[in-house]
Write a structure and sequence with these properties.
This is Thioredoxin domain-containing protein. By secondary structure, the chain is an alpha+beta fold. 48% of the residues lie in helices and 10% in strands. Among the domains are: 153 residues, Glutaredoxin, CATH 3.40.30; 209 residues, no CATH class. The longest helix is centred in the middle third of the chain and has 19 residues.
């Protein structure tokens, strides 16, 4: 069971005593910024995100930076887990105009949320290497004060560009998708991130695209997965995928394991097994489910958000992942066969070029060279190394049971049950579904919450993924109860006054002529793609809880850059293609 060691349940709580006077976003922030004559500064991150943690613990601890943010700006801290629509909006502007990539995102805006400047990770000052945060913040302040009209004008042009829409309603869609079908797959990335949604979309695309592109999808799926697994990117001892690596060979992982990543990888593997039942894929599911059950479980039946790379007693400025490392003195407890199987050495098994900071000198990170080692035949050897880990301090985890994470797990486990023929996966999916409705849903008020802390009502992502989970259970079990639950949740979303009644994927922002919604792929499938998949399933089963008018409204206002930047909209494009 997970060690619930984090004292804070969100970024806001964890950083409420910082020198930076962080605020949580409300529409009143825009009015406050206008009355003060200051730009707004948004910082978007989430728990367990290492570069975001570095900025919060280094950049924003700098007294000069904190003073500048408090005096010249209105600083807003956005937890991407708890405000996914706002995070998606800020991220889109940061990516479109300031070369940001993954989280964290920094963005300065005016009171109409028009983007002035921004980016991704910034070190505190220029002497850290690259442009420092202090330089950028001072530049924004100087331009705001010296030429505000010109600065605002350029920002509003950027906002107009990023919010421009185009119709993909039924009468317009076919010709446009013929263009997109030739550019659906994103280019190979050198950054060693897990990208589970990428694998899921590769698995989906192999069933949708023309044969040449489908074959390319399968080849990329197989080679990309092998690069991660036949190394150290998958924990071949206790199960679970690590979120990334420090090196392209995946020998030195980033040691966090996110629940959403496990769920999305399970879904991807289940889809591939239905066409290609490789034993290696089946074993990856077996070990991943075992990890979910043993390491992510909460007493209430839900699963925690992620497992950190640090234990309670670890130095946060030191090496992470010591739980997974095998040191010289521990080799004495292992059989020669275990040492050979996981490539361990008395002198350590990491090249100095990989461990360039020297954190893991004479230490071993177990890795494998064959899918065969994932089979049950190696479980007794696996237990040898696992026993060494069991004597160490337990890893920290965020104690929240998020609706979106557990909903993804329900769907993934149901798919895994059908793909493998193992009923225990369906049993686990159904038990999580029962716990999720008990802990995160209030029956009397028909209110869905973001998590079992019940501090915030559901986001559009929570609604979409929870409905998708119920529909998956209905599809796989043919139990009408799950369809009824999905309809009840969809009706609750339709009637939630925070969302646009003609398009519930849009969250009212409180800023005139602006709303927030998730259309691009991020760590989770986009809300719009999931909503449209749900709408199709409802329609196929005679349900009218999502009207054809609402579907057309969604399709009529899709991003104008869908054709020019298809790699950012993979889930949506595949959903549109599958619907034709």
């Amino acid at each position: 069971m997970a060690n619930l060691g984090f004292s804070a349940s969100s970024l806001q709580e964890a950083h409420q005593d910082d020198n930076v006077e962080w605020r949580e976003w409300t529409p009143g922030i825009a009015e406050h910024a206008k009355s003060e004559g200051k730009p707004i500064f948004f910082f978007v991150s989430q728990s367990g995100e290492s570069l975001g943690r570095a900025m919060l613990n280094e950049t924003f601890k700098n007294n000069t930076i904190a003073h500048l943010l408090n005096e010249a700006f209105v600083p807003v801290l956005v937890d991407a887990n708890e405000s996914p629509e706002l995070a998606a909006f800020i991220g889109k502007l940061a990516v479109d105009h300031f070369e940001a990539a993954e989280l964290p995102h920094c963005l300065w805006t005016d009171e109409e949320l028009a983007p002035l400047n921004g980016g991704g990770y910034f070190p505190p000052t220029d002497d850290w290497g690259g442009q420092g945060f202090l330089t950028v913040a001072r530049n924004v302040s100087e331009q705001w004060n010296s030429a505000p009209d010109d600065y605002r004008s350029m920002a509003r042009e950027k906002l107009a560009e990023s919010t421009k829409t185009e119709s993909y309603a039924s009468k317009d869609r076919t010709a446009k998708l013929q263009i997109l079908s030739t550019s659906t797959l994103p280019e190979e990335q050198t950054s060693p991130q897990l990208r589970p949604l990428y694998f899921l979309n590769l698995a989906k695309s192999s069933k949708i695209l023309p044969v040449p592109q489908a074959q390319k999808s399968l080849k990329e799926f197989e080679s990309g997965l092998e690069k991660i697994v036949i190394s150290a990117g998958f924990d071949s001892l206790e199960g679970g995928f690590f979120r990334g690596a420090n090196d392209e060979s995946w020998r030195l992982p980033f040691f966090q394991k996110a629940t959403r990543d496990q769920a999305l990888m399970l879904s991807a593997l289940a889809k591939r097994i239905s066409d290609d039942p490789k034993q290696g894929y089946i074993d990856l599911i077996r070990l991943t489910v075992g990890f979910i059950e043993s390491a992510l479980a909460k007493p209430n039946g839900l699963k925690v958000h992620f497992l950190d790379g640090f234990s309670e007693n670890d130095d946060p400025d030191g090496a992470e992942g010591l739980h997974y490392v095998v040191v010289k003195s521990e080799l004495e407890k292992l059989s020669g066969k275990s040492i050979k199987t996981w490539n361990l050495s008395q002198n350590g098994n990491l090249d100095p070029e990989i461990d360039f900071l020297g954190f893991y000198v004479e230490s071993n990170i177990p890795f494998i060279e064959s899918y065969d080692i994932l089979t049950a035949a190696y479980d007794s050897l696996r237990a040898e190394l696992a026993s060494i880990r069991s004597s160490k301090s337990p890893l920290l985890s965020e104690p929240i049971g998020y609706t979106k994470d557990n909903a993804l797990l329900i769907k993934a486990l149901a798919q895994s049950a059908v793909a493998t023929g193992l009923d225990q996966y369906m049993d686990l999916a159904q038990s999580i579904e029962t716990a999720l409705l008990k802990e995160n849903f209030e029956l009397e008020s028909h209110t869905l919450y973001q998590s079992d802390s019940k501090t915030k009502t559901a986001s559009s992502l929570d609604y979409a993924l929870m409905i998708a989970a119920e529909l998956e259970l209905f599809t796989q079990t043919n139990d009408i109860t799950y369809l009824n639950k999905a309809e009840s949740l969809q009706n609750a979303w339709n009637n939630d006054s925070r969302f646009n009644p003609s398009d519930p994927t849009r969250l009212e922002s409180g800023v005139e002529n602006l709303d927030f919604r998730s259309v691009r792929d991020r760590s989770y499938p986009s809300v719009v793609s999931t909503f449209l998949e749900n709408a199709q399933t409802f329609s196929e089963n005679g349900s009218e809880c999502i009207s054809s008018e609402i579907v057309e409204n969604v399709l009529t206002n899709l991003p104008a850059d869908l054709e020019t930047r298809p790699e950012l909209y993979q889930s949506l494009i595949l959903t549109l293609q599958n619907g034709d």
